[in-house]
Amino acid sequence: MIYYITDNRSQAIKLSQIPEVDYAALYEDLKERLKQEQYHVAHYFARPEEERLRFYLILLDDATSKIMISSFSMEYYEDIALPSLTALHPALHPFEREIAELYNVEFDSMPWAKPLRFSYNRRNRNSTIDNYPFYTIEGESLHEVNVGPIHAGIIEPGAFRFICNGESVLHLEIALGYQHRGVENEFSSTDNRLRQMLLAESIAGDSAVSHGVAYAMAMEKLSGKMADKNLEQERVVALELERMAMHIADTGALCTDVGYQLGQVACEALRTMTINTTQAWCGNRFGKGLIRPSGTNKPLTKEKVDMIRQNVAEIKRRYNEVREDIKTSATLLARYEQCGIVPKQEMQRIGGVGMAARASGVKRDIRSSHPYLVYGSQIQHESITKRHGDVMSRLTVRCREVLQSADYIEQILAGYTPAESCRPDYDLALSSESISIGLMEGWRGEICHVAITDKEGKIETYKIKDPSLHNWLALALAVRGEGISDFPINNKSFNLSYCGHDL
User: Fold this and answer.
1) Under DSSP, is residue 160 helix (H, G, I), strand (E, B) or coil?
2) Alpha-carbon distance 61 to 39, whole Å?
3) For residues 50-86, b (16+ Cβ closer than 10 Å) or e, as one string?
4) 49: which strand partners?
5) Which of 226, 281, 365, 492 lies 20 to 30 A from 213 at CA?
6) pLDDT at 150
7) Is the pLDDT score of 344 beyond 80?
8) Nearest 5 degrees, angle CA 229-CA 234-CA 240?
9) HSE toward the beta carbon, residue 449, CA cutoff 13 A
10) Residue 280, CB-side half-sphere exposure with 13 Å CA sphere
11) Is the pLDDT of residue 318 over 70?
12) Could you give the domains of the chain?
């Protein structure tokens, strides 16, 4: 099997260099290769190229830090069903479902042949969210509970259908796509880099820095104008501040759902202090305006460095007290432990990523497996993992990552020397007929942006993968066998993104 081999620090690749193979060969290779824990698919998508569909597969080797790219083609109207990889490896289900939805490609033996997003440009216009084919079970003792399609707390669209036997959940199916926004198409509809940057920041509002960095990396690889060391350091500080803020917020949300008001109030205050630190740096609590291609408008000064270091040290000290209180509370442990278990084997099968995967013992973290920015050089990242895969494990990973992020920020800023920074470059000339990958670890997990340019160097195709794409299924597995009243703490322990899915 032939792949183009690269890594996460390399520049863009000419499309002509990407091998084009027979699907049968790719299928046979992935059939065996994906049985190994070190491999997983970062992205898999199709796009029209003249009179054919060309499929691109981006495979990650976590053991060697390699990014492996291959492709295959089929005639646009070719009436052939491709053997489904999902039938062998469930982790590929969102990719095959999207390809089928957009291009009417059939996958033989596909076990989950349902729409993924109800995209505005889907082929089957008769398929709507109103006739989504929910799974059903019949039985006199069973009943269904429907939640949604609008979340009562955060006003985001999503439908949750529980099948229960009394209070026990037998099955949960999560249907998204109520608010497909066409974000990917917007990237290719404009050449304005600033507009594209603003789009990236809006993919998932709580991950503005993460998606902003992924976009900036993709553009810098296409242009060859890479970030300097100071800019790389600043981006890592921003990323770890975002991680701290969101993990602290989720700690408070979990405290809320079990009635632990002290933890809730303390975390709300600390989360506010964290995002206010970001606001004092760049003028926006969520870091919007901070990440820009090949430069920055908000460079760190000595005063800002001192402010961030002081605030982060105080946040770390106070948050650790909350963490110790949770660890020693028998009441909280009784609710969190052995609740919502997703075993390591199941998390691997569905392609789980990020904090949720690490809580189940799946050591999947782009910061260590495919280093970028100053990870792997200045920061030697060690992933925090747990093995029980329950609510408590997911909370514990969050707690320890907050403290770890605080240490990383201090490590960077202790040796940081402010210098004159490059201004953003919104006129980057992009390499023509090339593919570029922006791969990084957001606070939820793996984020992958893929940009493909045309003959004139304009973005022709832009594909985005938010970590929620994989982890929604993990939430559905977590609640099986649990009481339906425990759904809120399971949901909060994942805290997945609706808008990150409904691109």
Assistant:
1) strand
2) 5
3) eeebbbbbbbbbbeebbbbbbbbbbeeeeeeebebbb
4) 52
5) 492
6) 75
7) yes
8) 125
9) 31
10) 18
11) yes
12) 4-116 (3.30.460.80), 183-501 (1.10.645.10)
Q: Tell me the C-alpha distance between 147 and 160, whole Å.
A: 5
Q: Rounded CA gap, 375 and 310, in Å? A: 23
Query: Across the chain, what does the average pLDDT equal?
Result: 94
Place of tokens 């980057």: 428
Rounded Cα distance between 412 and 399, Å, is 21
Mean pLDDT over 36-45 rounds to: 97
* C-alpha–C-alpha distance, residues 387 and 389, integer Å: 6
* Distance separating the N- and C-terminal Cα atoms of the chain: 32
- Which amino acid is present at 399? C
Residue owning tokens 């926004």:
181
Q: How many degrees, rounded to 5, is the angle at CA 173 between CA 440 and CA 468? A: 10
3-state helix, strand, coil in the chain (%, to 5): 45, 20, 40
Could you tell me the pLDDT band of residue 138, with boundaries at 50, 70 and 90? confident
Bridge partners of residue 439, in order along the sequence = 448
pLDDT computed for residue 332 by the predictor: 93
Q: Which residue has the tokens 């003792």?
A: 141
Q: How far is CA 431 from CA 52, 318, 458, in A?
A: 23, 48, 9
Rounded to whole angstroms, the Cα distance separating 469 from 476 reads 13
Cα torsion angle, 192, 95, 438, 414, sign: positive
The answer to whether the CB of 203 falls within 8 A of the CB of 503 is: yes
